[in-house]
Amino acid sequence: MRLLASDERGLWRTLWRPNSLTLIPPENSLKVMANDSSYYAGLDIGGTTVKAVLVNQQAEQVGPLTEVRSLVKDGYEATFGQLDQALGQLAANAGIEKSAIAGIGLDVPAPSSDGVIWGKANLGDDWVGTDIRGKLSARTGVPVFMTNDGNAAAVGEYALRRKHMGSLLLVAPGTGLGGGFVLPGGKVYEGANGMALEVGHVSVPFREDDDGLPVCSCGLKGCAEAWVSLVALRRRLRLELAKPEWASHPLNSGDIPVEEKAFKLREFAEKGDPLAVQIFKQQGFILGYAIADLVRTFDPGLVVVGGGLAETSFRDQYMEWIQEGFADRAWPVYRNSPIDPSKVTTQFEWASGGDAAAAIGMAYTARETFGEP
Q: CB under 8 Å to 343, separation ≥6 — which residues?
């Protein structure tokens, strides 16, 4: 599948070339001579699978998306073996030698700074405190760019929008609430220490029925993620099913754990079930409310909403709930231009990259970071 050719965006290399971001520490710096026969790999490490994409020097995808099993719980060395397997499959599918891969873009499902993971998340113990970027670069013999999965997906969504030249904010509800911010020209914004855009931990003022603030997975209270995530969905469902008005609801029958019931909630919402619709409506409204504060800070112009809800039959309605929450919190100038009221200042779109977005983002980042100008 051809995703983006270099000549369709005024040449990616002129748009992307970072001037201030140190990608590889000097002591670990590698320079692989890139040429027209060089290729660049994007590797997206997830909890279940590693997804991989290959692009050529012209920034065109070569071969299909590749997936191999993820072994993150078994440690980084075991995962490196899976990354080697993914790189081998990419090369085989493209009909090239693995040595033709001149750079790698890698994203990890955990917080990191300068290539070093500092938060365990769902990884094995040995990941924390390890220079993953440096070790993978030494193992493969090619330079490596590394960031988190939210940033990678944001870049992937940017790459797939060929005509979009401005910035882009991604918010992606899932197990948690992730996201990322891409600057005009396609450079991901990571902050001074690689810790920017923890979008799920924007504070929102919504309270539970007992007037308390819900506790987030980070340990703080009142984070957006405490309302907009699969974990939050389980909590809300448990609380609602305990109320007398939902005593006869189908999800109240049987001894199925609430974790399994929460997975069924989307199916109920697609059928118009009042309880499911109520829960998702509240979630969408709060997400829009949180987005308003992010827009007030970054003024992205384009907000892309990812996550599994992008594939539901009620996604249009969910987007309306998001925009209702956004309108409740955002100043009018972030909805329509103060100069030309007919111009919408913040556009909303659903993500289009699906599960491949992060790998796509990393492949293109590797090409634009390590490829020849």
A: 336, 337
